[in-house]
Amino acid sequence: MRSAKLPFVILSILSVPLALMYLYLLIDTFTISEPGSLMPRGFTLEHWRFLWQDLPGRANIWQVTLNTIIFATITTTLVLLLSSSAAYALSRLNIPGRRILLGGAMVLHAFPSVTLLIAIFLILQYVGLYDTIAGVVIIKASLELPLGIWILKGFYDTVPWEIEMAAIQDGASRFYTWRKIVLPQIKPALAALAIFSFLASWSEYILPQVLAPGNHAQVLSVYLAGLIADDSHFDMALFKSVGLFYVLPVFALFLIFQKQLMNMYGGGTKG
Amino acid sequence: KDYTISVVAGGSSDADSYRTEAIAMAADILMREAAVAGESLNIKVEQRSYNNWDDFKQAVTLAAESGKAPNIVVTGHEDIAAWAQSGLIVPIEDYISLDSWPVNNIYPNLLNIASYNNRVYGLPQDAEARPFFAWKDHLAKLGYSAADIDAFPDKIATGEYTLYDMLNDAKKAQDMGLVEPGYGFYPRVSNGPDYWQFYTSFGGQLQDPQSHRLVFDQEAARKTYQFFIDAVKMGVTRKNHIGTPWDQWYAEVAHGKAMFWHGGTWHYARYTGKEGLTDFFGNIQFSLIPAGDRSGKANTLTHPLVYLLTDQKNDDVQEIAAKLIQIASEPRINTLHAIKSSHLGITKEQLNIPLYANNRWAMEATERLLPYASAMPNDTDFGNFWNIYWKGLEAAWTGQKTAEQAVKEAVTELRATMANSVIIR
Amino acid sequence: MNKSTSLGPFMLSPALLFVTLFFLLPVVMTAVFSFTTMSTATGITGGRYQISPASLRVLAGDYQLPELARQLGQQRYHIDDSGLNILREEQENTELVDEIQQKLSGQSFTQRRDLERALRQLNHRPRNVRKIKEIAEAFQHTVGSEPFDSADALLKAIQDSGVTLTESEQQAVIKSSYTGWHWSLENYRRMVSLPDTATALFNTLIYVLFTLMLFNLGFALCLALMTHYLPPRSGAFFRGLWLLPRISPPVLYVLLWKWVAWDTGFLSALLANFDVAPRNWMLNSATNAWVFIILINGFVGASMGMLIFSSAIKAIPQTQFWASDVDGASRWQQIRYIILPQLRWPILFITCYQTLSLLASFDLILLATDGGPGGTTEVWSLKAYHTALNNYAGNLQYGYGAALAMVLVVMGLVLSLLYLRVFKFDRLVSKPRIEI
Amino acid sequence: MGIQIRNFTKRFGQTTVIDNMNLDIESGEMIALLGPSGCGKSTTLFAISGIHKIDEGQLLLAGEDVTGKPPQQRNVGVIFQSYALYPHMTVEENIGFPLMIRKEAKADIKRKVQEMTELVGLKGLLGRKPAELSGGQQQRVSLARAMIRRPEVLLLDEPLANLDARLRITMRAEIRRIQQETGITAVLVTHDQVEAMSMCDRIAIMRDGKVLQYDTPEQMYQVPANDYVAGFMGNPPTSFLSGHLEHGTFRSLEADVQLPLPVLHSYSDQPVRLGLRPEHVRLEPQSANTATISFIENQGRELLYDLTLADGSVIRTIQPVNLHYGVGQSVHWDIDPHHILVFDEQGDLIHAG
Amino acid sequence: MGIQIRNFTKRFGQTTVIDNMNLDIESGEMIALLGPSGCGKSTTLFAISGIHKIDEGQLLLAGEDVTGKPPQQRNVGVIFQSYALYPHMTVEENIGFPLMIRKEAKADIKRKVQEMTELVGLKGLLGRKPAELSGGQQQRVSLARAMIRRPEVLLLDEPLANLDARLRITMRAEIRRIQQETGITAVLVTHDQVEAMSMCDRIAIMRDGKVLQYDTPEQMYQVPANDYVAGFMGNPPTSFLSGHLEHGTFRSLEADVQLPLPVLHSYSDQPVRLGLRPEHVRLEPQSANTATISFIENQGRELLYDLTLADGSVIRTIQPVNLHYGVGQSVHWDIDPHHILVFDEQGDLIHAG
Ligand SMILES: Nc1ncnc2c1ncn2[C@@H]1O[C@H](COP(=O)(O)OP(=O)(O)OP(=O)(O)O)[C@@H](O)[C@H]1O
Ligand SMILES: Nc1ncnc2c1ncn2[C@@H]1O[C@H](COP(=O)(O)OP(=O)(O)OP(=O)(O)O)[C@@H](O)[C@H]1O
Ligand SMILES: [Mg+2]
Ligand SMILES: [Mg+2]
């Protein structure tokens, strides 16, 4: 193997701005430096007080975190369920209009969700899911579907036909074959998609804010956004700390599951 | 009888907690009254505050569409027009008598601001004004004597000291090195009602008093736009001032980094609180916004929040809610909010409440500003109207367009967007 | 479930249901909205009929019925027998009715408030404000500005007030007094007529093109390639670092950029050492703003491509790298001839996917420059947001917003169809090898 | 259970891959489909198994028409070229899968899997995943899985292609033994003639979707229907020599070869191709036919010589190692007339010794 | 260009895969690395090519120490086990790749590719992508790609594993011819002994990262260093028989076998294993050793018999087709003493006839 020095140097240089930003973010949450000062000074844990005491007028951070985890987890599960079955049908089953459906999945992504919010609201309202976490979960999952379907379809394409044939020959139904034979083959892809959807749900702000404005199920993004609008008491360092608190779990998640996440690509074409 | 009354306040931070708590207190009083009268009444008040206006309005309108509107909404008066027309809210005058206490003690111009189509839809929840500020020490160094400085607000009120005089002083201060370039005149960092004050300073009018139609005064707009172009040209205001972070801005103005600026009465709380300015009156002079030129007049703008009553399709509930609003407007209760959040009172009697009377800022600001305060009109088209005005201002300010061009485009857009409902002069 | 023809629809249906309900239906509804005048003021679900100053203005202006408008605009309360009879019929407190007859008979009021005030002076006055209002209404001789739930009710009230309308006048009154939304092409007409529509389109083009090419594709590729050649551990570190912008909440992330770019920010502080005057680097000029907008969006956008490309490179069999090593290929040649050609499909996918993402996204721009300075960085989706969803004065224009959204939908649709065609995505669908 | 394929035609889009094929396989028989890559062997198997639809024709299993039936309803076991083991299951789960599908009792499955693994010699590997097995072991798992539900028909698609020579020999014997013991009807797809000959009762040689010859291995070896079949059978492969038949003598002027073929004295001036099997070509100093040794290949216990004739064409002979010829050496060669295969210009067999 | 491997050691993490290996390959020689799966053959190749780093030891090419040089600087051509063709390039581009990398003129590349494809018999396929080729064709593309820039060393990692028998024979000859013509030094990795024997000048038999024997094919076949080597060489494989040596006679009571070994009369009560090559085992009615035929495999021109002895152990014999024995028949067998290989308990050779 050849030396990795050159890419390392280039990458390091390119990453300096980003690294600096986040480094200073980290520093600011533990010090009392003024905004704009380059030299940090005065260590304090004051900005992290929200961890052990509720901020006045705000929900408990741990409750909010739990809500967020629940929200992200359910959304992820739903995305996995829906896209794994739909992608299989598109990849492997002989159904009319597969081409159009697959193209359609991509086109879906072209619909700007924010501008469709009003209509989405009306539908949720009609089916009685407005102002419920379930409603937000469903919408978020629908938004993530196109990506999920495309990614998983690529992976299904790489599963050897022979093992599916073998299972059918052994007497299994197509559905059973999918569940017990094919699905386990794309586990890496499912893991990747799961992590990706989790990240996406974790950072979702608009949907919970608009579609579940009730106080009962606040998520972290909404909690965080609540901190800025207060222009007379805006506490930048506190905001940064909460922001960091919000980022850290998913960052850790990425570092831990990076191997799995690197399986986002399952091929798809031979041309 | 059991009632659950929900009250939701927009744009509220911790300091504004009395916006909703006042209703809870009112409920307590109303229940006691009922008990004394031998009726059984049980009211539960649910409170909720939103920091963010957009989220708040979205939530309220969507909730209303889905039939889950909160009973009482605390919001800016400008929402009345749209919400009244859509039937989201009902006139409060249908449930309480305007001649009763304390409604009859509320400043009539505030009550006017809470009206639409000649009907009173809500009661003002607080008042404020948007003063012009100057750093006293810089004024002194420019050569103003202590007496001059004390007389400064009067000179402005009479129109003797204009916006362009201010620019010249700002330039001088910068040249003398009192403040850094760009800090001579240091306006609000984002769009807001404040920018209508300059339009008014240059003689602009927002609404035709007879027809109640919106008015776009081309000359006033042009002058306003030109004023900011000139400020940039003179170097006393930065071209890219809009978008400066609020906390940076607050820190700067509270510590004399700027010569002149403008803000809101509630800034007092921030300067003396979080920014740690101990001697406000020793350092800062405040006044009306100066007149633009000799033809205009000094002014300020108030942007009261109002208690609104939503349509619950149930008169009994609405009546209870209306009564709560009425009680919450009692001078004593309202003063809690006014002082805690550095807003101004809504009733005349508040001047006699010790908490209020002992607050120098509240008293002085009320006296100096409130009588001259105008407000934005309640009109369903006002939002559009405002956007167009602001777009022109921003384009001129940042040097994208000349004042004339900006006005011309604004007019084109006004014509295209709202044809009949706006008078273009 | 043995036949794929029956299993296929079965397995597709859940996703299809979700997509139809929460994706297609909203699009269709939005399309419908875009042909209406819907706003907060009109409500979404329906309207009422109300004689208001605005409706009278329309009646006088658009329908050329100024006299009728004047008539309807009058407010008049007259204490007369007919009103008293109504009260008696409704079995009101007779003492009160008698007192009214006694004290107020024959009087007229132009404001209800005045009548109510007069009523409140009476000895037998009701305690209840609502009651007083009801009593006052009995003496109303004009339509007033009360809203009516149906057109018929309004017409009847007008009739009762003594104004007779011709058929066409009736129609005019109904139309002008309706507070709900109505069908209209106005939104599209307005969009076409406004000068900054073209600007927004052009801005969108710049934004999408540059962000996509430079970052979502170009830089993402660089990241993927460079991390590929790094040892696994440092590769993971850099990928993690570059994923940070994506997982950070936008408000926080943009704040960090402001920390860099504002005049009290890092860049200014740093350059102060080289005698460069501090300035707001982000908003200093249109060019600067664009540079930052593209950087801000690009840093976020690159991570998605980075992930996909990295895993695609990982999927290339190691022996191919060995083979090309042995064949004498330098690292650059390896990238050029071995890696890139095999990234064709992921590159196409990312191009397609990210174009559409970019088209619809605006949140970072909103937070960073809010379209400034002076509207130079206002892209279409931001414009849609500004005009339709972010209205300080509370009257959100759903209809116009929907029209703006529809333009985006159509753009996205056309583009994705184009991509699907040009990139021959249909080749991706191969014939199933199990034919049952 | 016998298999009858009647007028079977299969098309993929425009191209006809199998063209009106007929094949009768008797119950308990093992036959081979032998042919070059792409000739339609796998396609035929897929049709029998039911994975592919049949465009035209009929398929009878034990006399019953199963043309329209899905694979699940045909009692057919398949061993795929790539084994198609389920990578996420252990050996035990792989083998037990067909029984689990049928919801047989856990204990039964365990017992049967036990039996089966002993039969195929996989004891002790039950807990492993396919990735942890050698090719040969995977092969045997695949075999066990196909056999465990006692199929009436066993289809094997190049089952030994991925094995090394030694293992291949063992597995050949093993598969054949199991097939014979259980009396299953089996179809083996291969392109290796040794495999086909050593394992099967009959062989069908295919080319371009058609069956060229369907016969026992001996018959096919000794009386190939045409030169293509002759070329396919025999290891090392048959060499061919073109020339003319004149009154009982084969002559090739260019190659300077003359071989007596007394049985065929009735032909005159007939252009023919001779098929000469290397094992029958002798190095005979007395012979008039000369050649030059152009290449020697050591095959362990024998040496394979390439003999280049005057016109550059090459024939081969296989000889014991104890002869010591070198490359470039000139030799004399001969062959018994009754070992010569004679084909006409179209390649059809005229005579086999 | 000769290759010297000196004290080469390679570890993957904790496990030592190659343990202090030494190998001298002369210029122009073709040697085979022969051994079972996982013994370290590919690892050795990767070390020579420079793809893997060497943990300890040295590698000399033409006497020059290239231990630290990257693959790009060694003129070595490699044919990978899995071919490692570039899937996105046509055959032409694949083969031309090493030349394109060197920025040779387009026309030159075209010409050389043309020549090369004729050499390996790929004419007419130049426009295809690897996925559209059969295994054998891919193989040949890989060969052509490795050869086109005239490497001084050619490394072949199981280049023929995926070919059918006929093609394999042709390719063996072809590769050997090209190698000899061009004088390239070549290392062939294989686990097929026929391949190793037929193609190479010398063979290194490896096991567990060690070279067991390094010799010419004949020598290795006739004098294998131990039973492992003996088992590896020969097709069909050597059968083994355990027993005792008593004063010039081998005896196995359990198997009821007695074979005279007069040369080894000095040993007494020595436990030994005999290696019997099938081609030397004769069916001799006069012999006292009996066995039962348990399986017959038709190998075309010969039949391979499994002979089961009294204790169940099996030896094999290969016989011409004209003998007609059946399964289950009892036969007598014998072998010439000078064909018997005798190994001691450790498996080391005591005597080769
Ligand atoms: N799905 C398909 N679409 C089009 N043509 C196909 C398809 N499957 C197979 N073919 C063609 O049908 C012919 C027969 O294919 P088949 O797989 O039966 O060959 P085979 O004899 O098994 O070859 P091999 O020995 O290479 O496995 C080939 O020419 C092949 O290209
Ligand atoms: N990257 C690696 N990490 C750890 N062990 C390895 C690695 N590569 C090879 N090995 C181990 O090294 C040993 C030798 O591997 P090598 O590939 O050289 O075997 P081989 O002789 O080529 O076998 P085969 O005939 O199966 O190709 C094997 O036991 C293998 O498991
Ligand atoms: Mg096949
Ligand atoms: Mg290997």
Give an account of the 3D structure:
The complex is a heteropentamer, with 1 copy of chain A (271 residues), 1 copy of chain B (425 residues), 1 copy of chain C (436 residues) and 2 copies of chain D (353 residues). Chain A has 271 residues and is mostly helical. Helix content of chain A is 68%, strand content 0%. In chain A, helix 2 crosses helix 8, helix 6 packs antiparallel against helix 7 and helix 8 packs antiparallel against helix 11 (236-261). The longest helix of chain A has 32 residues, at 61-92. In chain B, 45% of the residues lie in helices and 13% in strands. Chain B has helices at 18-36, 53-65, 79-85, 108-113, 136-142, 146-157, 163-175, 194-201, 218-234, 246-253, 267-272, 280-283, 315-328, 331-340, 354-357, 360-369, 382-397, 403-418; strands spanning 2-9, 42-49, 72-76, 89-90, 115-116, 119-120, 122-124, 132-135, 214-216, 260-262, 284-287, 300-301, 305-310, 373-374, 422-424. Chain B starts with a strand and ends with a strand. Chain C has 436 residues and is mostly helical. Chain C has helices at 4-33, 53-61, 66-73, 81-89, 94-104, 112-120, 129-138, 151-160, 167-177, 186-193, 196-228, 232-247, 250-261, 266-272, 286-314, 318-326, 331-342, 344-360, 363-368, 380-389, 398-422, and strands at 77-78, 108-109. The radius of gyration of chain C is 34 Å and the shape is elongated. The mean pLDDT of chain C is 82. Chains A and C meet through helix 1, helix 2, helix 3, helix 4 and helix 5 of A and helix 1, helix 11, helix 12, helix 13 and helix 14 of C. Residues 12, 17, 37-43, 81, 191 of chain E line the site of one adenosine-5'-triphosphate. One adenosine-5'-triphosphate binds at residues 12, 17, 37-43, 191 of chain D.
